[in-house]
C-alpha cells in the first residue's frame, strides 16, 4: 500500500512508489486562501470544500435523481475535460434533466474550482440533480429546480499508485449482479451504487481487494468505480454492454491501438476472463491498474503483464504531453 502523506489543508498525497510513472507535484498553497486544498461551487457560489452543503430535499439525494462526472487534474493539467462534460450532458439529456448552464460555463466552473483550490493533482466532480422546490420535500418534478454542483478536492484513488504498480486481486461477485441497461442505464454515470457496494463488501469478506460484477446474462461488466479490460493472445477485449463508456478506458484503447494491439468490444464470460493473459481496470480516479489474481487464480504469469504496463505508463505520460487531451489550469498565482 502507498504511504499516505498529509501535506497541509485537506491535502493528502500518496508517496511515489519506486519505479513509478506516477509522481505528485511539489508546491505549497498560498497563505490565507480560503479555498486552498478544496473548493466547491454550490448554488452559484464558490465555497471552501469543508463548508460544501446541499439541501436534504434535493431529489438527487432522495431519489438518486442525479448524474455526474469526475475529471482529473494531474501536474496542473485537466484531462479530456470537454469529453467528460459531453458525456455528462448526454447522460443528463437521456434522463430528461436539463442543465441550468451551458457546456462552456460548466467547464469554466470546474476549472475555476481547481484554480481556487490550487490543487495540482485534483479530483474534479460535477453533478446535476433534479433539485428541489420551494416546498420542503416537493415531489412534483415540474416544481423542482435542477441544481448543478461542482468541486475540486485532492486526487482520490480507486486504486492507489502502489496498487497500479504491483497489481490487485479481485473476485467475481456471486451475491449480486450488475443492474442492466433495462433497469438503470449504466451509460448515464450514476450514484445508484447498491450493487457495486454489495460486491465491494463481498470482496472484503472473501479477502480480495475488489470485485467484478456479471450482468444478468452472466457476462462481465464493471466494478466499483472502474471498467475492466483483458488481454488474450495479444488482443485487448473489453465488455460491450451494461457498462459506462469510461473515458479512461477510451484512452487505454487508443493507447493500445497506437501500440499495434488489436481492440475488441465484446461479451466476455467469467471463464474467458480467468483464462486471460492480462487483466486491468481503468478509471479517472486511478488510471490503469493491473489485476494479477481473480477468484484466487493467478492471471497469466501472476505478474503485471507487458501490455498493461505499457498502457499504464503511456496513460500517465499523456498527462504532461502538450496535446488536445489536456488543458492547463490557470492558477493566477500572482492575482
Ligand atoms: C461504474 C463505473 N464504471 C466505469 C468508470 C470509469 O469511468 P471513467 O474512466 O470515465 O472515469 C467509473 C468511474 O467512476 C464508474 O463509476
From TrEMBL:
A Pfam family that the UniProt record links to this protein: Aminotran_4
Against InterPro entries, the record matches this protein to: Aminotrans_IV, Aminotransferase-like, BCAT-like_C, BCAT-like_N, Class-IV_PLP-Dep_Aminotrnsfr
Per UniProt, the enzyme's principal EC class comes to transferase
Key word Membrane present = no
Keyword Amino-acid biosynthesis: yes or no?
Answer: no
Gene Ontology terms, MF aspect: transaminase activity
Record pathway: Amino-acid biosynthesis; L-leucine biosynthesis; L-leucine from 3-methyl-2-oxobutanoate: step 4/4; Amino-acid biosynthesis; L-isoleucine biosynthesis; L-isoleucine from 2-oxobutanoate: step 4/4; Amino-acid biosynthesis; L-valine biosynthesis; L-valine from pyruvate: step 4/4
Keywords annotated in UniProt: Aminotransferase, Transferase
Under catalytic activity, the entry for this protein gives: L-isoleucine + 2-oxoglutarate = (S)-3-methyl-2-oxopentanoate + L-glutamate; L-valine + 2-oxoglutarate = 3-methyl-2-oxobutanoate + L-glutamate; L-leucine + 2-oxoglutarate = 4-methyl-2-oxopentanoate + L-glutamate
List its EC numbers.
Answer: 2.6.1.42
The family note in this entry says: Belongs to the class-IV pyridoxal-phosphate-dependent aminotransferase family.
Write out the function statement from the record: Acts on leucine, isoleucine and valine.
Stated name of the protein:
branched-chain-amino-acid transaminase
Amino acid at each position: 500500500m502507498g504511504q499516505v502523506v498529509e501535506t497541509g489543508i485537506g491535502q493528502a498525497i500518496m508517496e511515489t512508489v519506486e519505479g513509478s510513472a506516477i509522481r505528485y507535484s511539489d508546491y505549497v498553497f498560498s497563505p490565507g486562501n480560503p479555498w486552498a486544498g478544496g473548493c466547491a461551487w454550490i448554488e452559484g457560489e464558490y465555497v471552501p470544500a469543508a463548508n460544501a452543503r446541499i439541501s436534504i430535499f434535493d431529489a438527487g439525494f432522495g431519489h438518486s435523481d442525479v448524474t455526474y462526472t469526475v475529471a482529473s487534474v494531474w501536474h496542473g493539467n485537466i484531462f479530456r475535460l470537454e469529453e467528460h462534460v459531453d458525456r455528462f450532458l448526454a447522460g443528463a439529456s437521456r434522463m430528461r434533466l436539463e442543465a441550468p448552464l451551458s457546456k462552456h460555463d460548466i467547464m469554466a466552473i470546474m476549472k475555476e474550482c481547481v484554480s481556487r483550490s490550487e490543487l495540482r493533482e485534483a479530483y474534479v466532480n460535477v453533478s446535476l440533480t433534479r433539485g428541489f422546490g420551494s416546498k420542503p420535500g416537493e415531489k412534483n418534478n415540474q416544481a423542482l429546480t435542477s441544481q448543478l454542483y461542482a468541486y475540486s478536492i485532492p486526487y482520490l484513488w480507486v486504486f492507489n499508485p502502489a496498487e497500479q504498480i504491483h497489481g490487485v486481486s479481485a473476485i467475481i461477485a456471486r451475491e449480486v449482479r450488475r443492474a442492466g441497461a433495462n433497469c438503470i442505464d449504466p451509460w448515464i454515470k450514476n450514484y445508484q451504487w447498491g450493487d457495486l457496494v454489495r460486491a465491494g463488501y463481498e470482496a472484503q469478506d472473501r479477502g480480495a481487494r475488489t470485485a467484478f460484477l456479471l450482468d444478468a446474462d452472466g457476462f462481465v461488466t464493471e466494478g466499483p468505480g472502474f471498467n475492466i479490460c483483458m488481454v488474450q493472445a495479444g488482443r485487448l477485449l473489453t465488455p460491450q454492454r451494461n457498462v459506462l463508456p469510461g473515458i479512461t478506458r477510451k484512452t487505454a484503447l487508443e493507447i493500445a491501438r497506437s501500440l499495434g494491439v488489436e481492440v475488441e468490444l465484446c461479451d466476455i464470460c467469467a471463464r474467458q476472463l480467468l483464462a486471460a493473459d492480462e487483466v486491468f481496470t481503468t478509471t479517472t480516479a486511478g488510471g490503469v491498474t493491473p489485476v494479477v489474481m481473480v477468484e484466487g487464480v493467478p492471471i497469466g504469469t501472476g505478474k503485471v503483464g507487458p501490455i498493461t504496463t505499457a498502457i499504464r505508463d503511456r496513460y500517465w505520460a499523456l498527462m504532461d504531453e502538450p496535446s488536445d487531451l489536456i488543458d492547463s489550469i490557470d492558477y493566477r498565482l500572482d492575482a
